[in-house]
Amino acid sequence: MFIKTLTTLVHAEHDTLWNLLLDRLQNPERFIPGVTESRIVEKAGNVCIRELMLHGERVREKITVHPYESQIHHELLEHPQFTGTIVTKVVRTARQSPVAPQNLEYDVDVSPKARIIKGVLYGEAEIVADLETEMQRLKLQAEEIESRA
After folding, report:
1. DSSP class of residue 140?
2. Looking at the predicted structure, is the pLDDT value of residue 54 above 70?
3. Which of 52, 71, 88, 112 counts the highest number of beta carbons within 10 A?
């Protein structure tokens, strides 16, 4: 089992960062390293099923959007190597100030499907590196949007 929380401070308004996370659901290739194609195959209310090609492997996930908590839950339904969840959050650093920076937080809770791994597979270090790259892309885009406003 691999459990880790990644956090980065983003100097942007809450809505700017949240809207980028929603855009990331429809256009993950803009943010997530290794995504070459994606599509939403089912959608009902705040839940959708998304399929994507990630590092050449097919991944299917159930995504639940919780706008009032500023959270997006990704449950791995089909992944060649892992099971588990990743929760993406926008956490306010101050409730009273609309211009206060936000924390972008990823709570990762995944487990390998097999103990004995044959061949070259993605490991914990690669997952963390990809998530950190994704967070930096979101941070840079949010801060760029804010600088133009």
Report:
1. H
2. yes
3. 88
Q: Please check whether residue 58 is in contact with residue 38, taking contact to mean a CB–CB distance below 8 angstroms.
A: no
Q: Kindly state the tokens that stand for 28.
A: 């993950």
Q: Which CATH number is 2-148 given? A: 3.30.530.20
Domain edges within the chain = 2-148
Q: Rounded to an integer, what distance in angstroms lies between the CA atom of residue 31 and that of residue 138?
A: 7
Find all residues with CB under 8 Å of 18, minimum gap 6, and list them: 67, 70, 90
User: 14-26 vs 124-148: helix axis angle to the nearest 10?
Assistant: 130
Q: How far is it, in rounded angstroms, from Cα 65 to Cα 69?
A: 9
Coil, helix or strand at residue 33: coil
Contact 25/72 with Cβ under 8 angstroms? yes
Distance separating alpha carbons of residues 115 and 81, to the nearest angstrom: 10
Place of tokens 């880790």: 4
Tokens 């070459």 locate to 36
Beta strands (DSSP E) in the chain are: 2-10, 35-44, 47-54, 57-66, 71-78, 82-92, 102-112
pLDDT digits (tens, 9 = 90+) for 78-103: 988 889 999 999 999 887 776 789 99
Query: Cα 24 from chain centroid?
Result: 8
